[in-house]
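Annex B. Sample input.
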Amino acid sequence: MILSSVYIIDHFLFEDAQVLNFGGHNFYSFSINKDLKKIYVTVTQNQSYIHEFWNKNIQNISAIVGSNGTGKTNILKAINKSYKDKTKSIFIYEEVFENNDIKLVIHNRTADFDYDNKKLEGSEYEIILTNVENYDLYKAESVIPLYYSAIYNTSIPDFYSLLPLESGSISKNLSNIYSDTILKQVAFLNNPVSKLIKQSFPDFPVYNLFKISLKNLSKRDFTQVYSDSNIGNPEKIETLKIHIESDLKEQKFRNPESLLRRYLSIIGDDNLFDTLQQIWNLPQYKNELTEKSHIVHDSSTFIKNFEIIILSFLTLNDTFIITGSNGRFDFNKILESSNFEEFLDNFLKKYIISQDKIFESNESDIKLENSNELIKIISSAYERITQVNGINTSMLRDKMLRDIEGLHNILDFYKLINELETDEESTSLVFFIDNGDIVERSELFFDLYSKIVNYFSNIPGINPDFLDVRTDINLSYGETCLLNLYSTIFNFTVSNDHTRKRENYLVILDEADLGYHPMWKRKFVDTLNNTLPIIFEELTPMIFEGNSWFPNPLYSIPNIQIIFTTHDPLSLSDIPNNNVIYLKRNNGFTKVLEFDDIQRPTKTFGANISDLIADSFFVTDGLIGDFVKEKIEDTIEWINVNVILENRQTETFDQELIYHKKLISIIDEPIIKLKLSEMISELEDSVVFQKEIIAKEIESLQQKYDRL
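Annex B, continued. Sample output.
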């Protein structure tokens, strides 16, 4: 089943209703009677349609072109039938049977909706086929649209796509987006399907491994946060004042000696800047390299450097609400930790006890290995107490639980990288694509890393992203775009949701050829035609019977239709003209150029590239850049002025003549160069310059002739 035509009745892009015919078996024209709420459809056979023109299982490939601002992406949104898009339209599909009989399937999307998004009964237009007897009504999800864009766009959530687009969630940070991209690529490259595509497309970009190293984080990045925002415990005097005022209010003076010790402890306490310095100066972590003394770590081993980076973040993360019930935890216990796991336990003790001194008696129980029991203790401690000195205890509880979860994720990540690192002296982790468990391990790795970054994201003024990911092959932008396209579609096909088990898919590509080298643009359509069926072989079309899904005996591989937008004539030259939708902007509205429109270009398939640029992409004023065009026009104007002797500025003429001769000599279009040399020779009453230009052109042609 293919989408053959869309009639868009009402859209902000268009002044009037517009028809998009995608080059199916038929063309469709529409007329509307809004008073009677009827739409009349006339079906005309597409005489240029060729059966099985594309590869097996590729039903049709069409293109939408037009200058910037014509609304190509918004039209794709309507075709995608986003759940947020209520564009009034009619979709006509063609279902082809083995005997080449065609049945029309129509999706009527002309209804109105109320505020609850419910269709208003009787609001649809009646569809009347003028020269076809009958049609079937479209069944939900008969054709699954898959929208893809290579451009990061925060508006993508409004478009909706079953494909896992990088820009599908505006809540993602760049680190999440990059790690998600790597995961998709790894799953694709690890699968045999990528090898099959590599056979079909030898230039297809692949890499063999990726390395993960630690960023060189500056100490100043950490200390600057403290100095800029006074993060952490307030200044000593202010902290002491809060504690004294709280004690006076509660009038608990039964143990003055204990109060005095606590006050002296506050006065003698180090500030956050000091504690950072103490962490960095620990013998096992101290950076002894003079040239890198400003860096948190010395780049020696991955594990050790990871530890000091995390300890730096944990020190900076030592924040809590001052309630008057805060406990005291000796930071020296942290400094005296014998290993990284003990560091984590001691930081957890400090976090919890600093928030509420009632947990001082449970200090020995505060360990990550006791997380489940610790969570119960914290939850029960605040079951009956709703406030502590005016502070809602739910805030204290949530902060403690977040700390437990955050530190647990750090511990799990630490154990994982210890398993991954085989060389104790290694400065990076290496993931080999061909490893059998690469997909599972990399997913676990990036999932835990994302949780750690999220845990530290509450620290103001610092980027908690501390890892660098590099592949063994430096992919260009175009190579990355190509790999992302295929890995994204592959990622969809290996999911288990029932929407991945249908017979028909409409692949909608929004300028997916951006960034490709011209050689790849030449291969863009041919590669899609040859390789997408390989990826979709991962799917087995299913039918739902009873309460279960079963393989559909009529299909072994889904049918695929492709609609793409492009600005590139090389991609467009592979598309028959009847399969091209031309958009043109006029008087603030977009118009679809129909087949009988004199403005519609008539040549695409195998057409001359220059003609395609000028006609199909509506490039006016020639096929050269505006800069050189302006230079040539200036030279022509100067020649025309100076042909008349009275107009010449004699004091500047000679220098200006030299300038314009040089300009003419570097023009690479022979016809323009020869004509300008002829014109400028009239100013000198000499053909010497013209002969020089002609001689160089003859020499160039002779060299080409000799090479044949």
